[in-house]
Amino acid sequence: MNFFDKMQELTGVCLNEVQQKAVRYAKGPLLLLASPGSGKTTTLNMKIGYLLLVKKVPAHKILAITFSKASAVDMAARFDQFFSTILKDRVHFSTIHSIAFQIVREYFSMHHQNFEIIEGNSNRDFDKKTILRNIFIQNRNTIPSEDEMDELFSYSSFVKNKMIPDEELVQKKMMMPGLVEMYKQYEAYKVQNPGLVLLDFDDMLSYCYKALYEDAYLRNKYQQRFEYILTDESQDNSVIQHEIIYLLASPQFNICVVADDDQSIFMWRGADVRKLLDFKKIYPNAKTVTMAQNYRSTPEIVDTANEFIKRNRNRYPKKMFTENASGESIEIRNVKRYDLQLNYVVEEIQKADNPCEVAILYRNNNSAILLVNKFFEEGIPFYMKDVELKFFHHWIVDDILNIMRLSYNDSRVDILEKVYPKINAYIKKNQILQLQKHLSKESAFDRLQEMIHAPYQEQVLKRVKQTIRKLQMQEPYEAIQTIRQDLGYDKSLQNSAEHLRMNEENLFDILNTLEQIAKELPTLEAFAYRLKEIEQLMRTSKKYKGRNVITLSTLHSAKGLEYDRVYMIDLIEGILPNNEDIKEYEVGNIEEMEEATRLFYVGMTRARHHLELLTYNTRSGAHVKESRFVQNVRKIIAPEENQEPIVKKKNKQPKFRPMQDHAITDEAELNLGMQVEHHLYGTGQITSLLPDSIEIDFESVGSKKFMLDFCLIHGYLKKV
């Protein structure tokens, strides 16, 4: 009896011909392209079993690397399910960070160097967040907001994972002011003590790469220790993770990389789909096997998703298919207003016979806030895949609540100090300092009037005092409108966004979300209490894991999961794709739009039988446009209904006017290393020139990749 017949008898697993081919390939590098629902985890486990039982490879010689700790636990459990009765030795299932930590620990021990981990560490003196916070305060003389801390964390991680060298760390115009300098100070702080190196999680990867690259003894030891390496979800690996795996697999390169380039959705944290697309350049003798049969979804979902992902240029050509029975068509539901989308989703959940087989997917965590508010009103329990509570502690939320608190007691100088620059009252810092010297129950605005002699400021203070005091008499929605319009908070927010280089639309989305929650609540106290209730519901939603309730998840967190019914919500331009995706695409840079396309594709392929795409026409009183991805799907599922009459159109002018002088319109004028000027991003150097794309490293924003024909047609480039 051969291996596959034996496995079918013992485990009930019957692999198709392509899966068997992938399992049998045991020598040299293998790229296993696994479409959604193609049984990659099962195939990977069977491949490990094949190495153990047929090739007689010792278990300790096999390293199976997964993207997350949860994935490693899941794969180990699946392996035990298949092989625990016939195999005594267990294979090592590890995350890349786990194996990196082993190598770094040994490296430092060999070099007699002490180190300490500063993430997940209770020692507050060496806590990453505290260190970064202190550096920010020293540089900016103010306490950082959650947004600013997030940017510091994200930049630090991105630089390490993308392996950006120090000489390329240039402060770009769109960055938070002083970001690069603060990052450099953080790096210097961690090595300032000769007897102790401080490591965050990303440093473990950096030092692991350094150890393997520079220390021949250590490199040879781990290369000999692991005869076979298998990596799952490799499309999510960052640049440095790919490089570490390459060094571990050398020189025999018995490596199986399981991935789907169409599901690469973590570019913002250093993942690079080009590492997969260039696999045969990196591993010249590599073999590629494509598992394209989908066992999860109906043909209606599979065929549409397969056609949709063809929007992208940078991908392996493959045709996903299924032999599953036919089912329902994909539904596209366009409602007039955002709140009608919420109402519809709630109605669908209340009708569901098996709520645990229902998932609501969205791009941004803010989408979950109003959903949870609606579920609270309707008494609907839910499980949230990844709980994100930063919204409730955002400085905008704090501002609105503090201004409301001030309406009940405007003698609170401690509260006024937090909001005075944002209420259009012409109050100066030194005036606040004078108020703080003497505590009083008198109105802070009255006390300020006694300090000043400028008539215009007296009038302003009287108006602001009256406006704030009347807030307590208003319903929450009206109060927020008053804060935004009469107190000038919207204008202040615009100024903050420009000064701090934050995304203005994201900031106003928080305000609009607060307004939606405030609707129909009777008092300011009720509004503040509702925010606490929503936060608590989200915080405790983990208790419903595994129970018969619906799942809420971002599209990023939903990868790897599947449900009978999937509802993708908030599918409008500005969210999916977001405004940054659109802006970059309009100037010929396709990378962000292609990742947004992959994210939409991931959402579609979570559904087994029923998939609905939800969009709307207005939100917070403003008109919004249906996502171009929804329009694309509509044309795929009903092409005859979406045929436009053939009419002769006038040539449209491009959105940006092309450069008139010395515009480059012929590819022959371009060369690698050449300095060019882009109409939007300024001067840069050509670093890659392919038949359909050009990559330019700009002085202002770093490296950007564009469609070559797009730039030539519109004259977006000129010689320097």
Structure summarized in a few sentences:
This protein is of the alpha/beta class and 720 residues long. It is 46% helix and 14% strand. Strands 9, 10, 11, 12, 13, 14 and 15 form a seven-stranded mixed sheet that branches.
Description:
This protein is of the alpha/beta class and 720 residues long. It has five domains: 3-99 and 206-293, Rossmann fold; 114-194, no CATH class; 305-381 and 547-639, P-loop containing nucleotide triphosphate hydrolases (Rossmann fold), CATH 3.40.50.300; 392-532, PCRA, domain 4 (Orthogonal Bundle), CATH 1.10.486.10; 667-719, Beta Barrel (Thrombin, subunit H), CATH 2.40.10. 46% of the residues lie in helices and 14% in strands. It has 30 helices and 20 strands. Strands 9, 10, 11, 12, 13, 14 and 15 form a seven-stranded mixed sheet that branches. Strands 3-2-6-7-1-8 form a six-stranded parallel sheet, with helices on both faces. The longest helix has 17 residues, at 146-162. The N and C termini lie far apart (70 Å). The model is unreliable at 646-657 (pLDDT under 50).
Query: Which regions contain 5 or more consecutive residues with pLDDT less than 50?
Result: 646-657
CATH domain class name of the largest domain? Alpha Beta
Largest β sheet strand count, sense and barrel closure:
7 strands, mixed
Count all strands and give the number.
20
Query: What's the CATH topology name of the largest domain?
Result: Rossmann fold
Radius of gyration: 28 Å
Please give the share of residues in helix.
40-55%
What fraction strand?
Answer: 5-15%
Q: Which class of secondary structure composition applies to the elements? A: alpha/beta
Q: What's the mean pLDDT score?
A: 88
Find the CATH superfamily of the largest domain.
P-loop containing nucleotide triphosphate hydrolases
Terminus-to-terminus distance: 70 Å
Oligomer: single chain
The best one-word shape is globular
Number of helices: 30
What count of structural domains? Answer: 5
